[in-house]
Amino acid sequence: MQKEQSRAGHLAALFTILLWGTTYIATKVLLRHFGPLEILLTRFVIGYLTLLMMRPGRVRLARPKQEWLFVFAGLSGITLYYLLENLALTQTTASNVGIIVTISPFFMALLTVVFLHAKLPNRWFYIGFVVAMSGVILVSDHSEVAMVGHWLGDALAVLAALVWAVYSLLTAKIGTLDVNLIQATRHTFFYGILFMLPLTWLFGFKLDWHELVQPVNLSNFLFLGIGACALCFVTWSFAVKRLGTVRTSVYMYLVPVITLAFSVWLLHEPLTPLIMLGAALTLVGLWLSGKTA
């Protein structure tokens, strides 16, 4: 039974990362007609409504103070993470941001030790981290990596990685509650959307409905809302519940590799031997980091 649960967790994490790795392409298409905040809020509203249809009803908690877990999970993983990532992209290169946010598993390992009193990961986690990060750097766009990113953008990307680690820690705590996983994810989305609303006034929000209903745009919004938000946040929480925060987090190393694969396939971007080496190193790093148990 333990092995079957572990296998299910690995499959859920892999499925989640497979979809998340393609979101950059869908977002790139939508950015032609919509702003980052318009895309972000719209996709999470679609995700929330999808989860509401899948599992209606109120979330009933054993103790009122457990509500704070969902408040901070929505604030960290839904609002702050994506806001910091988008702000970082305005200050430094996309490659810098892509590399830096991949250090999130390292932060997760430290946070589980401090707050969950877990043991420090063994040496394979750190060896795998170094190998995987080397691969991520090789996979990234070297024309951009060669540029020195602005320190503010890089710092914001580090904060985004830390915030995602906090979100994953809260997800692990929420997973111990007697709450349906779909309802728990929906409840987290609710607070994330709530915290986004003031940003619509601060950054400006004007959704062009004529562009929204265009088949290409609508299909990408539905993919981001139903697939990458509603479905993937549930499967990620499921993986965290089955594998733990640290073992699940190392799958994030695969995001740049998956993005690369779909970029080559759909956008016909070049595939060089150096990039192939980077992808191989990332996979080896993932395998080594998985030897923590």
Automatic annotation (TrEMBL):
Residues 8-140, 152-288 form the EamA domain. The chain crosses the membrane at residues 12-31, 37-54, 66-84, 96-116, 123-140, 146-167, 188-207, 219-238, 250-268, 274-290. It holds the Pfam family EamA. It comes from the Bacteria. InterPro entries: AA-Vitamin_Transporters, EamA_dom, EmrE-like. Keywords: Cell membrane, Membrane, Transmembrane, Transmembrane helix. GO terms for cellular component: plasma membrane. It is a multi-pass membrane protein. Its main location: membrane. It is found in: Cell membrane. Belongs to the EamA transporter family. This is EamA domain-containing protein. It comes from Lacticaseibacillus camelliae DSM 22697 = JCM 13995.
